[in-house]
Design a protein that fits this description.
With 246 residues, the protein is an alpha+beta fold. It contains six helices and 14 strands. About 4% of the residues have low confidence.
Length: 246
């Protein structure tokens, strides 16, 4: 509890590039994008968007932001009879992200999550890495990152994919005659051309996910438009199984 508490202050930069956080006073779990008020101390401390208390902690801390964890933190820091307890039951296992670095890593994810068969995109969170500071200047505090949470009809039910340095993203929206259930998906390494004629072009290694197994990576925009597909092209990818909060 003592170690976790140090991550509840002076954390503005870290939270703005995080995906999930919670308040250990009101025990609400929310996205960092919901935070609108900060204490302007040395590095910026978040105020909970629900209760206004400066008891916000994010997953960057290495602690799982779960109802059990937040309740244990609340008891330790706000309930006197618990604060001196030798042990408070809490599941403090780190949410371990697995980086996709090899073809075997891709095969492992596709096998574990059944090729994304019978799954849906439940939520998407985008962080541009830019913000306008108090002096009205534009500052870069992080990367262009996208977090996608999938729900599946199979086990494991919830999986989160975190794409880092996103180069291109196409999200297919509402279709009245279609349930948006993924039948199968593409996940592969590919080459990304960055730069322009003025600054110069270069090719680097990247990774692509698309909700269609026959996605043509040679013409991303045309393929997405022709088949009404969703795709994400990024420099790198990491993923994890997350618990079901329901």
């Amino acid at each position: 509890m003592e170690e976790a508490h140090q991550y509840s202050s002076n954390h503005k930069k870290e939270l703005q590039n995080d995906y999930r956080c919670g308040c250990f006073y009101c025990e609400k779990i929310f996205s960092p994008v919901e935070i609108t008020e900060w204490i302007e101390d040395s590095l910026g401390t978040a105020l909970c968007p629900s209760c206004g208390i400066d008891s916000v902690i994010g997953e960057y801390s290495g602690f799982r932001i779960t109802p059990m964890f937040l309740n244990a933190m609340y008891k330790y820091w706000f309930v006197p009879e618990y604060s001196n307890a030798e042990q408070i039951e809490v599941d403090d296992e780190v949410f371990d992200f697995r980086e996709i670095r090899t073809e075997q890593d891709i095969d492992d994810l596709m096998t574990i999550y059944h090729g994304f068969h019978d799954s849906v995109i439940a939520a998407v969170s985008y962080r541009s890495g830019y913000a306008v500071g108090s002096d009205r200047s534009v500052d870069q505090y992080g990367n262009h990152n996208v977090s996608v949470i999938f729900h599946s009809q199979w086990d494991p039910r919830l999986v989160e994919l975190c794409f880092e340095n996103v180069r291109k993203i196409y999200i297919n929206g509402l279709r009245e005659n279609y349930m948006n259930i993924i039948d199968d998906a593409t996940l592969c390494f590919c080459d990304i051309t960055i730069g322009d004629e003025i600054m110069g072009e270069m090719t680097k290694h990247g990774i692509l996910w698309a909700d269609y197994s026959d996605f043509d990576i040679s013409d991303l925009d045309q393929s997405a438009a022709e088949y009404d597909m969703t795709f994400i092209l990024a420099d790198s990818l990491k993923w994890r199984i997350i618990e079901d909060d329901n």
